[in-house]
Structure formats: C-alpha cells, structure tokens
Amino acid sequence: MSSEATKGQDPDQYGQLHPIETPELIARKRVEFEEHLQHILASSSSFRTELEGLKQAQEKCPQLLTDDFKLIFLRCEVFNADLAAQRYVHYWEKRLEIFGPEKAFQPLTLDQALSEDWTALNMGFAQWIPNVKDPQGRSIVFINPANQDSRKYESKSMVRAFWYMVHAALVENEQAQKHGVVFVGYGRDAKLSQFDRELGRLNISSLQGAIPVRLAAIHLCRPPSFFKVVFAFMKLFMKERTKKRILVHFGNQDQVLEKLAKYGLEKTVLPAKLGGDVALDLQKWLQERKSEGK
C-alpha cells in the first residue's frame, strides 16, 4: 500500500513501502485521524450501525484510547488517516463481537480480558515468538493447526487467544507496528478433522479490517495433503490484498528452510518444529506474562 508518506520509495521483499516517520508527519496525521473519526461519528449513513463498539469504548475504557494506540492504526494504514480511522471503528466493533460486552473493554491481559481463555491459549495454535525478529524488525507469529482440538475450546475463545498473540507482537515491538508482522504456519502434522471453519473466518476478518497489523506475509510451510480443499474455503473470506500475502512452501525440511531464508527468516528466528533453533516453551512464557500482569 502506498500513500503520500511513501512517495519515491522502493518496495521491500514483500512489496511493502515504509514511510520515514518524523514528528511533523505524526503530529499532522494524528490531527487528520481525529478529524476523520469525528466525521464518522457524526455520519448519518449506514456506517453508523457499526459505531456501538467505539462509543462503548469511549465511555467504558477511555484510558485505553491513547495516542500511542491510535498511532498503531496510522502505521498500519501507512499514515492514510481516513483508512486508519475506519479500521479503528471496525476494530472496536470486532473486539465487542469477539470478546463480548463483559470483556471487550478490559485490557487485553491474561488476568482480565483473557482470564477465561487459558485452555485456548495453552494449546499453542498461535504463538508469538518473543525476542526474535526478521531483518526489518518484524515480529514473527508461529501458527500450528495441529495443536487444535475443537472439543476443548469454543472458536471465539481461540480467536481471543489469537488476538492476544498478535497484540503482544505489535504493542511490544514498535518495528512491527512500522514494518508489519510475519506469520509462519506449519501444516505437516495437521488433520482435516482439526480444521475449524469458524476460527478461520473470524481470524481472517480480524486481520483484514480490525486488528491494526500490517500483514507482511503468511508463510504456509509443508502444507498437508488436504491443503487445497481448506485453502479454497479460506479464500472465500480473503480480500485480494490478503491473498497476495500468502506464500506456500512445499518440500522437505531443508528445502523449506532454504526458501524461508530468502525472506530473511533464518533458522535463528524459527521454531524447532520447523527445523529452527528457537525452543518454544509456551506454558512457561504465559505464566511469566501472567505474573507480570501482561
């Protein structure tokens, strides 16, 4: 996506452009963001039906609506203030849908908004890989559908766990706000019976127009034999912009690692499940975060 803030720049390996941020640019775009937001709030169009989430957020959790939080939306939309304001409205609408009125306006921490989602979190369907980044500073989120067991969780609970991981990847890494997040999926061990249609639909809709994440790429590694069937269904919910971000890597472990390395994803930033050097200990990580109030 291009904007006035990226004129004259060359795209990176994922085709993305990244503005050079200055205090003047940020200040000007913050003003434009608020102007567009006020215009939306004052609108009498059909868009007005989508404002309930934001209005409740303004009333119930104004402490969460900080300038720094809004800046993440501006960065996500490459400082297009109009698109950022629209995403901000959709974000609160989707957050209310996913978390419900009791939890949507609480901080996204393990002891508050996620307090009832411990089972889903511990399954490890989605895991932010802490302390590692790609060469541009992007956060990396590992997706392992083989860890799903729909008998043990509700789809929205797993979506909330997904939101938690993506928010952690964004809020705790400013470079991810600027350059995006890379998702790396490993499908070799997954079974068709584990495919959760509702989970897929809700996660896609969250990424496409709600969570303020620049989707750099979704690397699908060693997909299972039924991949074409599942992917055909998932594409029904994807915008063209999302489809272009999906990269499928077939082959054995060494071949896939070689392909990932071309995108700067060396073994040092990849989990052991993929043949990388990073040993993930999800339960320990979650316990540490819970004790830190995260």
Verbal overview:
By secondary structure, this protein is of the alpha/beta class. The chain is about 45% helix and about 10% strand. It has 12 helices and 5 strands. It has a 5-stranded mixed β-sheet with strand order 1-2-3-4-5. Strand 3 (about 180-185), helix 8 and strand 4 (about 215-220) form a beta-alpha-beta unit. Helix 1 packs across helix 3 (about 65-75). It is globular and about 55 Å long. The two termini are about 30 Å apart.
Provide a short characterization of the protein structure.
With 294 residues, the chain is an alpha/beta fold. Helix content is 46%, strand content 9%.
Between the first and last Cα atoms, what is the distance in angstroms? 32 Å
Instruction: Give the strand line-up of the largest sheet.
Output: 1-2-3-4-5
Q: Count the helices. How many?
A: 12
Helix/strand structural class: alpha/beta
Largest sheet: 5 strands, mixed
Order of helices and strands: HHHHHEEHHEHEHHEHH
Report the radius of gyration as a whole number of Å. 19 Å
How many beta-strand runs? 5
**Shape descriptor:** globular
* Average predicted local confidence, pLDDT: 93
Helix content: 40-55%
Would you identify the regions where 5 or more consecutive residues have pLDDT less than 50? none
User: What proportion strand?
Assistant: 5-15%
Question: What's the layout of helices and strands?
Answer:
Blueprint: H1 23-42, H2 52-60, H3 67-76, H4 81-103, H5 118-123, E1 126-128, E2 139-143, H6 155-171, H7 174-179, E3 181-186, H8 197-209, E4 215-221, H9 227-234, H10 240-243, E5 246-249, H11 253-261, H12 282-291
Parallel strand pairs: 2-3, 3-4, 4-5
Antiparallel strand pairs: 1-2
Helix pairs in contact: 1-3, 1-4, 2-4, 3-4, 6-8
